[in-house]
């Protein structure tokens, strides 16, 4: 596991955490059938925060962030995103999904559409942006993730790292205020991990609110302002990265860190 | 590598230029070597197959080419053959095709009105062009919208206001759907739209077209269904079956995946029932039983009944084929569409269906081809499709005893249509290829 994500100084001038609440999760519980997968989750995310969520496989990390944009439904407790409460009301769900972008482990690009079409589809159909404007915005973000020249290709013609950067650009085209990442680099070869992390760091430097499930501890150290450790569907420990890594409080955390950092 | 002893080190000092491949691996000879005579077994197989092809052709070709085109009965044919090629020669009697060509094509459709089905067919191609080929100009979509209404009018005739009324049903359904969907929800809107359109068609459309017809009588001569026959009938049944079963199949496939238990079980029940029943029984139901259930005195056109049965039948198969395509899509596609905020219908239309349909193209086209060929079953319930006509012609005194020529010709025409469909599907697969 790489200790450092990037070898450059990170520009922290805009990485400020405001006291405005972006996501508020209170007493949230979720079951898959009889299996209690998330247990009494309480989490407040402030605007501008960069939170890394880690934990052993099956601890419920994916389920937690997928509840935030209602890819999974929770059964108890409340989730409030940007002031809108997630309920079965479709209007609220649509509203929240417009504000929250998501990047998946397996990219999930649409293989039958070009890169450009992937990026403009949701703005055109969901935000009702005129096509021309949507294409300009898409080009802007494709330049940002450094693959404008691939705009007319299909996802199947790109490398894994390029595909994941397109997936990030596709989310950004919806101008989300919050970005969720579910293990964005774990399906990638080592040499491609860095290019994706670079993109994510740039996003952090611009002040995006980010929730990142990842095992890239270097990224957590450098970019996160808070690290959350989950086990068995519960939040076991959270702290600032410095403190979290050098002085873990719980035994579970220590065990997990020793395994993942390979001592 | 000479010189240096006992050394495994090696550096190339000179880069090699390009050489042409050996002549035995290129050109006609190379190709034959690789594909026909690569070893003893394949050489034997090649020679055997060549012999087989030769003996079939040696038997069939002279029979076909010596065939007689000018005669008015099978006996006359035989006499001419005996005269020109000697007693005992086997030769085809194509004269039956020549003499009965128009009946095989149009049945009893009045010959001074052949232009109507012809025009309908031409319009059909104009309507299909923008759907099948993305190079066709977009304005041709006007045809795609109009032909489903104009086409039947050309075939059956009657007042122009009937297709107009039928079209208005869709317009009404569309606006009701929009209005209700905006006020309540997508599903309610859809139901309201469908109900409104059905109410219009069942109760109001006829009064509307009658009223307009009495004010402005624009009409062409009516041709009754029983005069339809030959390939015209087969093509009419095939095209409507294909055009209607495809969207119905999509709806059924989506319904089968629905979270709504009632919708789901209705769709599953329908699909399983239809697939469990032979088409011919459905056709008998259409021809005989439906009359019991319908109120006395209602005229329910036999061709229309058969069309409905064929459509329902192949829609069930279509639904299963499309479900296969849906099942092949990774869950991530649905999740990405959801996460981007697309609605269910947007996701289906823009993300899911294009991919699911693309995966299922070969099976979809197979189903279409099967449907088209199955239209010949209507001859069993007494409709005069090409097979029905072949039987009629055979029972005629002049042509009693003729078999190969008639069925061969019918098979040939069916083959042309089916082959075109299968070529189109290959073209489409190649065009939609977006992988590496
Ligand atoms: N659709 C589902 N139905 C039933 N159980 C599920 C479902 N999805 C996940 N689970 C279970 O819920 C638990 C949490 O899953 P989740 O995917 O959130 O874990 P994770 O922390 O993301 O693990 P990983 O690091 O392997 O991705 C696991 O035990 C998993 O088996
Ligand atoms: Mg996970």
Would you give an account of this structure?
The complex is a heterodimer of chains A (263) and B (436). Chain A is an alpha/beta fold and 263 residues long. Chain A contains nine helices and ten strands. In chain A, the strands form two sheets. Chain A has a six-stranded mixed beta sheet, sandwiched between helices. In chain A, strands 2-1-4-5 form a four-stranded antiparallel beta sheet, covered by helices on one side. The longest helix of chain A has 16 residues, at 190-205. The radius of gyration of chain A is 18 Å and the shape is globular. The model of chain A has no long low-confidence stretch (mean pLDDT 92). Chain B is flat. A two-stranded antiparallel ribbon of chain B has the order 1-2. Chain B has 16 helices and two strands. Chain B folds into three domains: 26-97, no CATH class; 158-220, no CATH class; 225-432, MetI-like (MetI-like fold), CATH 1.10.3720.10. Helices cover 70% and strands 1% of the residues of chain B. Chain B has 436 residues and is mainly alpha-helical. The relative contact order of chain B is 0.08. The mean pLDDT of chain B is 89. Classes of the chains: A alpha/beta (263), B mainly alpha (436). The structure holds adenosine-5'-triphosphate and magnesium ion (MG).
